[in-house]
């Protein structure tokens, strides 16, 4: 910790990208929870921001912006994806399912019910991502044992530490015939 | 497990949580889910240097960028007369020397002191515009030597981080009787020495911090929506000390909050920035933290370096304990930081043992790192880890059994109330009971057979035990005031009974995963005899709740619940007067139970809802004697800390090929006092265990010598995932708290406090054939592999001599 420092000169600042308020705007159609939405947005917009900021669907959560926590998990054509790493423009023509589209009217999806039955969450922030991921985990055929569920749910962080109960919820739904 | 029977929805019932539906369906309302009309977005430019002089900031290019409404630096903050971020606790050290308390500016002024220190703020129409513009701010820095570690900060001739903190020391503090401890050591049969570093952690609630400032120019009212565990505390700290806005003009709302674990107790600069800039710009301003930014700006936890010596007699009785700790404060004092290593940690040095003489010293040090403050357990995990590792080391050196040495030194149930040599008076507990139950649950007696079976499979199996207590339910205001707290630590409940008998409960505590909306409703339902569905719990809004100190330190039920009991007592007392009038009986003859006010010994009664209706429609009412209405407020100031405790037993298996440690069984028996909702208590304990296992095995915060945070993402900082956390055997064994009306102690932190030493004791036990006496946390695969494969025994990370 005592190596010499050279306090004389700061390294030169990288020149920032040219100020550009005219970033290309894309007009696109997103199919979310069975509904088509015609939207215009900055091409840099992630699917997560499109859902939250353009469609007001705030169930998918920003947790790390790096695809490392799973709080933003949604289904794209049935596959679980990190919405924070997916550009909205890349999902045109695909069917997106978010937590808001999981229940059938007033009836909870079996996974939502299992999360209640097994007390599988506390603060609720990671929960939409956990539930979406759990549904896909079963559909993928990765819910054969507790160990397998742990492995295939390990992309979804829960800082409240509800993992044992999440595993039980997934096992329960899988045992009752899947998601 | 409980002192009452188990009605379907009252005290003792595992009622499913009422918060569930909105969280499960994506309808929770967390701060970043909220948007205000006309809202602007803030982006914070942060220091890339650990320690540097700011020679100049050129914001002209940024200010001219598209959508930019304002760019602020320290000059603007200072010109506006804003104060610094206050610290809530003043520790007085040896010789009456009060702690050094350097200015903590909202935006770095003159110098930056850690990577991530906020330097400038851009407010723009969109988040991307603000972020793009922040890149166009040119800051000239002259780097200064980083003080990445406490050793660097304390080195002779080290540069000062703050001119008014000589030697980079915040305070040098002591507790206990040094002379008595020296005398105890002089008579010792054996002295056991142990050194350890309690690894620095990042709380990492899944919800990143966020804040929205709003301002109504017509009323002059400021509103802050924020990710906080204690909105009234934020209103007080930010309003009184930073913005200088009186309470009636400042509303703080903490809506659904996605986990806190301590990190959302503190008042952060960004809250002041959005609130102030919203008033400047007359438009709402929103800021949401990114994860990498959170690593650089959320208060970290732990980071204590400790040396301890334990004096024992020939039979293994503890005679004296001497502990010296260096506690990292980081670059600035966060809200509770000075209290963590002192009054929340060193006061626990007796643990569950009768050690008669103890002397503890804590030197708190400023370093060029993110501020360090309370994280789940706050000081108590550090002391518990120290003691429970030390006891294992002592057992080994004494040639004693690890359980036997603990039993020999336990405080017995007949010794309560028990005065420790380090200020606390424990009210209740039964450490033998929780130990016995955990040993049974873990099949401790059968361990050696499991170890042999694992060995046959090529695995190293170990078992570790921790018997601990903690102090929570903070805390008596008079006591904490004497210790340096700058606030009272009571709690407030306002209970409004509506005319038809439904009930709204306004609590100063805050729920961010604890399930208060359910537990508190169960409590009120049972006490007032009102169906659960008729009880509403309201929290998190200074505009609705009279006052409160918030949720941390496992205090919500012990202190906040007690305030509810007190308010309900007032409601019932008034109800009895109304009932006496209606039933033409004397007040003394009116009994209240199961929602009925009854003339004792008769079947003449009035239902709770009849009384509430009479209170609001006072046609036939003792109007000369009492006011209409049925609403009461109570402040409850605790009489003592509460002292949960118990026993945690961990069993691990190590793969010698990879060094990976797997927790294969974990048994916890905790005494958390009376249990209102066993399901929620079990969830809280499991969650604490997960964080404790994370600390013990994988989590670590790493700075390089230049003060750069190397572990600043979820790819670099290992968080416990489903694969690492086993199923737990969790149970409770109850002694009641003697000094609060519910007999509750608190359950939020016990898991994180008791578990790390159980895990490491198990790891060391698994490696017993390798001559290992200690492994520092986290016990990563690399560390374990290196131990197993070290050819040179001297390279082993042995701790005790």
TrEMBL record, chain A:
- Residue ranges annotated as compositionally biased, kind Pro residues, are 9-19
Q: Which CDD domains match?
A: fer2 (cd00207)
Q: Which residues form the 2Fe-2S ferredoxin-type domain?
A: 26-102
Which terms in the Gene Ontology molecular function aspect does this entry carry? 2 iron, 2 sulfur cluster binding; metal ion binding; oxidoreductase activity, acting on the aldehyde or oxo group of donors
Keywords (alphabetical) are:
2Fe-2S, Iron, Iron-sulfur, Metal-binding, Oxidoreductase
Q: Is Iron-sulfur found in the keyword set? A: yes
- Note down the stretches annotated as region Disordered: 1-21
Domain of life of the source: Bacteria
Q: Does the keyword Iron-sulfur apply?
A: yes
Xref: Pfam families:
Fer2, Fer2_2
Q: Which protein is depicted? A: Oxidoreductase
Automatic annotation (TrEMBL), chain B:
Q: Which residues form the Aldehyde oxidase/xanthine dehydrogenase a/b hammerhead domain?
A: 25-145
Q: Which UniProt keywords apply?
A: Molybdenum, Oxidoreductase
The regions listed as transmembrane in this protein's record are none
Query: InterPro entries this protein is in?
Result: Ald_Oxase/Xan_DH_a/b (IPR000674), Ald_Oxase/Xan_DH_a/b_sf (IPR036856), Ald_Oxase/xanthine_DH-like (IPR016208), AldOxase/xan_DH_MoCoBD1 (IPR008274), AldOxase/xan_DH_MoCoBD2 (IPR046867), AldOxase/xan_DH_Mopterin-bd_sf (IPR037165)
Superkingdom of origin: Bacteria
SMART domains with a match to the protein in the record: Ald_Xan_dh_C
* Example GO molecular function: oxidoreductase activity
Can you say what this protein is called?
Carbon monoxide dehydrogenase
Give the organism, scientific name.
Teichococcus aestuarii
């Amino acid at each position: 910790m005592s190596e010499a420092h050279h306090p004389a000169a700061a390294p030169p600042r990288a020149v920032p990208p040219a100020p550009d308020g005219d970033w290309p705007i894309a007009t696109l159609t997103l199919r979310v929870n069975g509904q088509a939405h015609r939207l215009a947005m900055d091409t840099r917009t992630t699917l997560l921001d499109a859902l939250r900021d353009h469609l007001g669907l705030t169930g998918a959560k920003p947790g790390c912006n790096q695809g490392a926590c799973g709080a933003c998990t949604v289904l794209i054509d049935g596959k679980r994806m990190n919405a924070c790493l997916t550009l909205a423009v890349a999902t045109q023509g695909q069917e997106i399912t978010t937590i808001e589209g999981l229940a059938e009217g007033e009836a909870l999806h079996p996974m939502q019910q299992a999360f209640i039955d097994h007390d599988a969450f506390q603060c609720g922030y990671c929960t939409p991502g956990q539930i979406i991921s759990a549904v896909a985990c079963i559909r993928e055929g990765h819910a054969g044992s507790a160990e397998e569920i742990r492995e295939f749910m390990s992309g979804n962080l829960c800082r409240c530490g509800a993992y044992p109960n999440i595993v039980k919820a997934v096992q329960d739904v899988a045992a009752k015939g899947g998601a | 497990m409980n002192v009452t029977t188990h009605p379907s929805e009252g005290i003792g019932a595992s009622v499913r949580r009422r918060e569930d539906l909105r969280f499960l369906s994506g309808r929770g309302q967390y701060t970043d889910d909220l948007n205000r009309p006309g809202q602007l977005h803030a982006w914070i430019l942060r220091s890339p240097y650990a320690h540097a002089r700011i020679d100049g900031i050129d914001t002209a290019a940024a200010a001219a960028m598209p959508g930019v409404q304002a760019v602020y630096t320290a000059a603007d903050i200072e010109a506006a007369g804003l104060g610094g971020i206050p610290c809530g606790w003043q520790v007085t050290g040896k010789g009456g020397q009060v702690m050094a308390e350097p200015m903590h500016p909202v935006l770095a002024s003159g110098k930056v002191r850690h990577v991530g220190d906020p330097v400038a703020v851009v407010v723009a129409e969109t988040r991307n515009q603000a972020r793009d513009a922040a890149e166009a701010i040119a800051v000239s820095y002259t780097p200064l030597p980083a003080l990445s570690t406490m050793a660097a900060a304390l080195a002779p001739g080290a540069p000062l981080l703050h001119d008014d903190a000589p030697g980079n020391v915040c305070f040098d503090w002591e507790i206990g009787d040094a002379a008595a401890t020296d005398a105890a050591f002089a008579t010792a049969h054996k002295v056991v020495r142990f050194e350890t570093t309690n690894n620095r952690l990042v709380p990492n609630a899944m919800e990143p911090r966020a804040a929205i400032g709003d301002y109504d120019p017509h009323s002059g009212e400021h509103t802050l929506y924020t990710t906080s565990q204690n909105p009234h505390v934020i209103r007080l700290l930010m309003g009184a000390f930073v913005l200088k806005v009186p309470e009636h003009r400042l509303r703080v709302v903490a809506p659904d909050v996605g986990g806190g674990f301590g990190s959302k107790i503190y008042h952060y600069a960004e809250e002041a920035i959005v609130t102030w800039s919203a008033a400047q710009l007359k438009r709402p301003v929103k800021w949401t933290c990114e994860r990498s930014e959170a690593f650089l700006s959320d208060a970290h936890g732990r980071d204590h370096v400790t040396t301890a010596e334990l004096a024992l007699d020939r039979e293994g009785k503890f005679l004296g304990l001497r502990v010296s700790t260096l506690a990292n404060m980081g670059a600035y004092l966060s809200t509770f930081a000075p209290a963590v290593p002192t009054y929340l940690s060193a006061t626990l040095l007796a643990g569950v043992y009768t050690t008669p003489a103890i002397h503890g010293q804590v030197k708190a040090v400023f370093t060029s790192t993110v501020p360090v403050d309370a994280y789940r357990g706050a000081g108590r995990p550090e002391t518990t880890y120290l003691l429970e590792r030390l006891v294992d080391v002592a057992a080994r050196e004494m040639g004693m059994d690890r359980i036997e040495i603990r039993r020999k030194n336990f405080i017995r149930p007949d010794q309560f109330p028990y005065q420790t040599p380090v200020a606390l008076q424990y009210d209740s507990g039964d450490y033998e009971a929780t130990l016995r139950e955990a040993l049974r649950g873990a099949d401790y007696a059968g361990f050696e057979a499991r170890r042999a079976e694992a060995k046959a499979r090529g695995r190293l199996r170990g078992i570790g035990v921790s018997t601990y207590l903690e102090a929570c339910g903070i805390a008596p205001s008079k006591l904490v005031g004497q210790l340096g707290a700058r606030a009272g630590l009571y709690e407030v409940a306002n209970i409004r009974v509506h005319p038809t008998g439904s009930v709204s409960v306004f609590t100063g505590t805050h729920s961010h995963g604890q399930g208060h909306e359910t537990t508190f409703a169960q409590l009120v339902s049972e006490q007032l005899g009102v169906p659960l569905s008729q009880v509403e719990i309201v929290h998190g809004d200074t505009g609705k709740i009279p006052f409160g100190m918030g949720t941390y330190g496992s205090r919500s039920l012990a202190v906040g619940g007690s305030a509810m009991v007190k308010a309900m007592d007032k409601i019932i007392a008034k109800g009895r007067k109304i009932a006496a009038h209606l039933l033409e009986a004397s007040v003394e003859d009116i009994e209240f139970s199961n929602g009925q006010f009854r003339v004792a010994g008769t079947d003449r009664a009035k239902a709770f809802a009849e009384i509430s209706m009479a209170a609001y429609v006072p046609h036939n009412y003792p109007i000369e004697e009492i006011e209409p209405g049925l609403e009461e407020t109570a402040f409850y100031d605790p009489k003592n800390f509460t002292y949960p405790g118990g026993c945690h037993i961990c069993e691990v298996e190590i793969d010698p090929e990879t060094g990976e440690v797997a927790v294969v069984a974990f048994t916890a028996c905790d005494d958390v006092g009376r249990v209102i909702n066993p399901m929620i208590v079990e969830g809280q304990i499991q969650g604490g265990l997960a964080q404790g296992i994370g600390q013990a095995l994988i989590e670590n915060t790493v700075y390089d010598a230049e003060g750069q945070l190397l572990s600043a993402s979820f790819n670099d900082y290992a968080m416990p995932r489903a694969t690492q956390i086993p199923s737990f055997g969790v149970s409770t064994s109850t002694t009641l708290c003697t000094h609060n009306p519910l007999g509750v102690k608190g359950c939020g932190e016990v898991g994180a406090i008791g578990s790390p030493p159980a895990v490491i004791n198990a790891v060391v036990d698994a490696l017993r054939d390798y001559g290992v006496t200690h492994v520092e946390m986290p016990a990563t695969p690399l560390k374990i592999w290196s131990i197993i494969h070290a050819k040179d025994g001297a390279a082993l990370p042995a701790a005790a001599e």
